[in-house]
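step 3/5: co-fold with 5-O-phosphono-beta-D-ribofuranosylamine
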Amino acid sequence: MLVGVLVSGSGTNLQALIDADLPIAVVLSDRPGVQALERAEPAGIATEVVDRSEYLPDRREAFTHAVVDALKAHGVDLVAMAGFMTILSKPMFDAFEHRIVNTHPSLLPAFRGAHAVEEAIEAGVKLTGCTVHVATEEVDAGPILAQEAVPVEAGDTVETLHARIKTVEHRLYPQVIRQLIEQLGANP
Ligand code: GRF
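step 4/5: write tokens
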């Protein structure tokens, strides 16, 4: 079972997956120069960049095919999205059916999309959290695998709340992926 991790940013969740010794074959970014890519190198993990700026906004399907091809070239069985900020189209979900997972910084189905932490603060909720789910073509809507609640505290900013949520993600996401690898290994 080989994991491909999709990233776009700081890569703290990627780091948690690396630290958990998961079998990561490749880290793929949708843009060059991000911190997540720098985390792969000392861990001896291959990196790929499929630069979204060369494809979007008009060629999302071609972008998706390039991502699929790069992951397949590294023998990836299971895809973990870890802060990946480009929406992939159908060919990705056909190529890795039921084998793409994502971590999202809210208790889905609340606060889908790219501004989940900000929207939780604006809504005044007292509890938010994180959700690990199977990724499907509809963004942040696939079957939920695990969730954990995180309190919103008085005076929280997007940064302080997101940091509290990430602390939980860093524990939960590797746990869920490890279980999935065991299940898929037993029933390939
Ligand atoms: C995480 O909070 C994840 O839930 C969301 O993007 C963030 C990625 O953070 N999808 P990082 O790049 O792993 O630090």
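step 5/5: annotate
The beta strands are 3-7, 24-29, 46-49, 78-81, 100-104, 127-134, 144-151.
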